[in-house]
Write a structure and sequence with these properties.
The chain has 520 residues and is an all-beta fold. Helices cover 2% and strands 66% of the residues. The protein has two helices and 28 strands. The chain has helices at residues 296-299, 496-499, and strands spanning 2-10, 14-16, 22-23, 26-40, 43-54, 62-65, 80-81, 89-104, 108-126, 136-154, 161-181, 189-210, 215-237, 245-271, 274-285, 306-319, 324-344, 352-375, 378-393, 395-396, 399-400, 412-420, 428-439, 457-468, 473-480, 488-492, 502-506, 511-518. The protein has a 20-stranded antiparallel β-sheet, with no helix packed on it. Strands 3-2-7 form a three-stranded mixed β-sheet, with no helix packed on it. A hairpin with a 4-residue loop joins strand 12 (189-210) and strand 13 (215-237). The model has no long low-confidence stretch (mean pLDDT 91).
Length: 520
């Protein structure tokens, strides 16, 4: 039996200038427990439970583009904003439980995994991030999910064949209530009640054949059937106290998706320390309905499944008596019906962001990972990735976004870290780590809006820790973003068309902290 409680607390690093409240704080408590029993030599059962509770005040957003038709100017201090709605909050509760049973069948092992998870979220916010009463949001979301998987796996033996087969089932129930309070221009309040149901069943299998002692070929496939349902209603609530009227009357829609996804892999073990591989894989992300549609037609119209064909080839090796590890990969991802979040200009009162499909997209690049153990207690890690992404065909209304870069896809990323971990005494270990992380510019929207991008970002982080054995106390001091770099962590254009506002969430400034731990 094992348990793992955790508590995190952090002061807020942004401020509401009107109320004086600090925002972007952290107050989280989590617990994870596990119990394993062995009724017989051939059967073991593991029970797991986890719970997480978050109670931060609220997240901070600031206006990074637009002027609310000339009524608003951005604050000179990027970490201070002025909100007319000062009582915003976030309440999040997550509970999960699972049971895993594993049987030893001799030549194979059989596993059955049952899991349940519930999520309850309630939060409010000043959606426009200005001192004017434009848009307030009060939303609650509840989901309940159950999954069941049965899997059988062959054991390694003298046979050149190895295999795996399984069945997977998912049932998900969700409900979202979004209350937009719209006092600007004397607009009515708007309430959306959306209920979703998802059922998914899949069968999968994979077989590998060792052609020679060095060459192994693998072929596999997964077939998935999913069915999704949406029941939705949107109402306007007049300020005058009159009866509510339906903007979207209660609409019930359903759709289903079927997908066959094969996978092929070739692996060549050139030496004990060098492995080359190449793979071709098909995959998909199911479609569905938008929980916040623009109108009744959109409520009944599903967006399509996203499909990908992934090509990858690489080399993994360890050299110099395992003191150097080098992994390289080149890849090409071809997307069709790529799912994209984008704001819809309704020409009316309520800002709407919906999932739509880009016809085609492509991502290609290379990755290099290098780890060097210079001396027994000193390790260096270098990771680099070069990425080229673009929509190959994407018309959004009257706009042609073909050629634009995909959101959150920086062209270059680089990280370098050094870890020194000497043993101070028989039971006390020291750890000293320094890290530099770089990312080239990335956009947050498919429109590649220059007001919603990060620019090139380089961060320095460091930590110093002491631990008493593998099972005992530990103490760590850390510093993050030591150069105090300022950049956007997220950009939002939901209000751009309706209210001439673009908002963003800032990345955290320089931070220091202490982590106390105990293993038992």
């Amino acid at each position: 039996m094992s348990t793992k409680p955790s508590y995190k607390e952090r002061d807020g690093w942004t401020r509401d200038a009107i109320s004086g409240r600090n925002l972007n704080d952290e107050d989280s408590l989590s617990f994870r427990g596990q119990l394993q029993i062995e009724p017989s030599d051939s059967l073991d059962i593991t029970f797991s439970i986890d719970h997480a509770r978050d109670r931060p005040t609220s997240s901070f957003k600031e206006v990074v583009g637009g002027t609310l038709f000339g009524f608003f100017q951005e604050s000179a201090d990027p970490f201070s904003g002025a909100y007319d709605f000062s009582d915003s909050f976030i309440r999040r509760n997550i509970l999960g439980a699972s049971m895993s049973a594993n049987w030893d069948l001799g030549d194979a092992s059989l596993s059955a995994i049952s899991a349940y998870r519930s999520t309850n979220i309630h939060y409010t916010e000043d959606f426009d991030s200005t001192p004017f009463p434009v848009v307030h949001l009060d939303t609650s979301q509840k989901t309940r999910q159950y999954t069941q998987e049965i899997r059988i796996v062959s054991k390694e033996g003298d046979s050149p064949f190895s295999w795996i087969a399984g069945l997977f089932f998912l049932r998900d129930r969700g409900r979202a209530n979004d209350h937009f309070i719209l006092p600007f221009f004397a607009l009515d309040d708007e309430l959306t009640d959306a209920r979703t149901r998802t059922s998914s069943i899949a069968g999968y299998g994979e077989i590998s054949y060792r052609v020679t002692s060095k060459l192994k070929l693998t072929a596999g496939a997964r077939y998935t059937h999913e069915r999704k349902r949406l029941g939705i209603q949107r109402q306007f609530l007049p300020f005058a106290g009159g009866p509510a009227f339906d903007f979207i009357p209660l609409t019930t829609s359903s759709t289903s998706f079927n997908n066959f996804s094969p996978r092929f892999v070739a692996e060549y073990q050139a030496t004990d320390d060098i492995l080359g591989y190449a793979s071709v894989t098909r995959g998909f992300k199911s479609g569905g309905f938008n929980n916040f549609p623009a109108d009744a037609v959109a409520a009944a119209t599903p967006f399509s499944s996203e499909k990908i064909t992934a090509y990858e080839a690489g080399l993994k090796g360890t050299l110099l008596d395992r003191r150097l590890r080098l992994n390289t990969a080149a890849f090409l991802y071809d997307y069709s019906d790529l799912q994209v979040f984008a704001p819809i200009d309704t020409g009316g009162q309520v800002p709407v962001v919906q999932i739509t499909n880009a016809a085609k997209g492509r991502v290609k690049g290379i990755e290099i990972e290098l780890a060097v153990m210079a001396v027994p207690d000193l390790k260096f890690d270098i990771n680099y990735a070069h990425l080229i992404s673009q929509y190959r065909r994407f018309r959004f209304g009257t706009l042609d976004l073909s050629g634009n870069t995909l959101p959150r896809a920086p062209r270059d990323t680089l990280s370098f870290s050094a870890d020194w971990s000497p043993q101070l005494s028989t039971n006390v270990d020291l750890s000293l780590r320094g890290e530099y992380v770089y990312s080239s510019n990335l956009f947050f929207t498919p429109f590649n809006d220059p007001e919603l991008q990060t620019g090139n970002v380089g961060l320095f982080n460091a930590s110093l820790g002491v631990a008493h054995g593998k099972d005992g106390w530990s103490l760590s001091l850390y510093g993050r973003n030591l150069a105090n770099r300022r950049n956007l962590a997220h950009g939002i254009d939901a209000l751009a068309n309706t209210f001439d506002l673009k908002t963003g969430q800032l990345a955290a400034p320089r931070q220091y902290g202490i982590i106390l731990g105990w293993k038992y």
